[in-house]
Amino acid sequence: MFTLGVVLIHDNARPHSAAVTKRLLDGFKWDVFDHPAYSPDLAPSDYHLFPELKKMLGGQSFRKDDALQDAVKNHLKSLAAKFYEQGIKKLVPRYEKCLNLNGDYVKK
After folding, report:
1. What is the per-residue pLDDT across 55-92, written as a single tens digit (0 to 9) for each?
2. End-to-end distance of the chain based on CA atoms, in angstroms?
3. Cα separation of 79 and 98, whole Å?
4. Rounded Cα gap, residues 71 and 91, in angstroms
5. Do the bridges between strand 31-34 and strand 7-10 make them parallel or antiparallel, or are there none, so unpaired?
6. Of the ranges 13-22, 46-55, 99-108, the best mean pLDDT one
7. C-alpha closest to that of 33 among 54, 59, 63, 7
8. Mapping DSSP to helix (H, G, I), strand (E, B) and coil, where does residue 73 land?
9. Which helix or strand (DSSP H or E) is residue 31 part of?
10. Backbone dihedral angles phi then psi of residue 34, each to the nearest 5 degrees
11. Cα torsion at 34, 10, 56, 68 (round to 10°)?
């Protein structure tokens, strides 16, 4: 019931294309869309999240990995759900643009 209408977009990495994975996804009745193996256009982390982290981390230095990890975790937790929603909503026009270009790289 909670999985109806889910659209999963992933590349053709081995774990994603394995027969057992395909059977599992078929069982969920999800729509599965593929995209080129390397496509930052369709990865919300690349076009939405990483620029935000880059902005937050700019000019800072950390003496230990733990301090950096804590700063990133705290910042990600502080972002409102609206931020994440905006990143997902940007995916639809990006996916359409990528399809219209037959999978070629999409510049902003």
Report:
1. 999 999 999 999 999 999 999 999 999 998 898 888 88
2. 36
3. 28
4. 27
5. parallel
6. 46-55
7. 7
8. helix
9. strand 31-34
10. -95, 160
11. -150
